[in-house]
Write a structure and sequence with these properties.
223 residues; 9 helices; mainly alpha
Length: 223
């Protein structure tokens, strides 16, 4: 039997740091690809790494100052992401592939972290799933707006927003069934989310436009 969620349990800060770091690397690499300077690379790493968390803390939870200004380790994760992003570029890696991998990891881990923090704050099950998804996609949304690209979450594509929602929902479900094993629930849910996102890209699993006529036109333009 699944139990009621214990709202006194919260995932360790390491989950926040991992999510911030990998999302920040994706943002830094996007900035490097657009030939930004060091300030621009750090700014985009900051927005991508922490945008979703700032939306979570500032709009939904409102539990005091955001985590980034309460724990310097989170800001250090952004600095590390900036350095790593620049370093990967210097090594001549294929940026599109690396961005995809880091973005997928950040998406899934932040979905878990957002849902966890929402449960601790006493939000409902659906509320926790919503905030987890917003936490996951918020940084990427702000990044795309700043670099003047149509946000990925708004376009038919390879299970971006849907992957965030499913990861958040899976974590909420598992925390109710894994008695006292929230970290295990987080690892399982995040792994599933990362796998879903990467498999969607690998096998081109896509959402489609609302109207069938638009879908046929989309498919024709791609072909």
């Amino acid at each position: 039997m699944c139990r009621m969620i214990d709202t006194n349990i919260q995932l360790p800060i390491a989950f926040d740091m991992v999510a911030t770091f990998v999302s920040g690397v994706a943002g830094a690499l996007a900035a490097v690809r657009r030939r930004y300077d060091y300030v621009g690379v750090f700014a985009l790493a900051f927005v991508t790494g922490l945008g979703g968390a700032l939306l979570r803390d500032g709009i939904f939870l409102q539990s005091g100052p955001p985590a980034v200004v309460r724990d310097s380790r989170i800001l250090m994760a952004v600095l590390a992401a900036t350095v790593v992003g620049v370093g990967i570029n210097q090594l001549g890696r294929r940026l599109s592939v690396v961005v995809l991998v880091f973005d997928s990891i950040g998406l899934a881990v932040y979905a878990v972290v957002g849902a966890d923090r929402s449960q601790v704050a006493g939000l409902s099950t659906l509320g926790a799933i919503l905030v987890g998804a917003v936490n996951a996609v918020g940084g990427g949304l702000l990044r795309d707006v700043l670099i003047r690209e149509e946000p990925v979450i708004f376009k038919p594509g390879q299970l971006y927003g849907l992957a965030a929602i499913m990861t958040s929902a899976l974590f909420v479900s598992l925390t109710a069934c894994f008695d006292g094993k929230e970290e295990l629930a987080a690892i399982v849910a995040a792994s599933a989310g990362i796998s879903l996102r990467l498999l969607a890209v690998r096998y081109d699993w896509k959402t489609r436009p609302l109207y069938w006529k638009d879908w046929k036109q989309h498919r024709g333009s791609v072909g």
